[in-house]
Amino acid sequence: MSTFASTAPKNSLLAALPDDEYQRLLPHLEPVILEHAAVLYEIEEPISHFYFPFEAVISLVTQMEDGRIVEVALIGNEGASGIAAVLGQNVSAERAIVQIPDSGVRIKTSVIVEEFNRYQGLHTLLLRYANSLMRQMAQTAACNASHTVEERLSRWLLMCQDRVKSAELNLTQEFIAEMLGTRRATVNVAAVNLQSAGLIKYNRGRIRILDLAGLSGFACECYAAVKKEFAGT
Predict the structure, then answer these.
(1) Which member of 10, 43, 83, 119 has the greatest number of CB atoms within 10 A?
(2) Structural domain span for residue 37
(3) Would the CA dihedral through 156, 161, 167, 173 be positive or negative?
(4) What value, to the nearest 5°, has the Cα angle with vertex 134 and ends 133 and 138?
(5) How far is CA 111 from CA 10, 28, 47, 147, in A?
(6) For the chain, what is the domain count?
């Protein structure tokens, strides 16, 4: 049983639920520590749980035939992983991997699907979130095809910062390269360029955003488009 009944939900989806529906979920919510690089479920693996991050960030990635992986969406405290299950898809089309560690809660998929089918508040909320997540995926695909690595890296750092509420991010170049679907050397050049512009400071797997407004101005239009989409959910 949950041990945080007296505290407000730290996840925006849970916080947006009508209180009676949240109280119905509460006994089934299990606190979890989402550790860096933990795989929550694999491609073509059953979605056993929904995960609601607090200040953790989960990446949804797809894998190419040559083994390369590319991020298609980010999930933070605005949402939850596992949303495909309420749309009738019992296995995952993506790998869900913890990118930035923190805490969260999880709930068995069978419970959330049952509540989704019975109660209007949760039903509407999850469908709206699913639409926003699909819009993010579409925008990410367009971004990867249209914008420079520096612009894409700026967008990605800003999206992470929005979710963890911290200017400091512990991220290796190798991990960033995998998420952006590019080479580590390319990410290194992009990071150096952003650092030379005074926007970030990068050192040994740690990135600090020095100029949030400047980085926002440098990022491609995709950052603002995705942020606007989730602001309406």
Answers:
(1) 83
(2) 12-143
(3) negative
(4) 120
(5) 20, 8, 12, 41
(6) 2
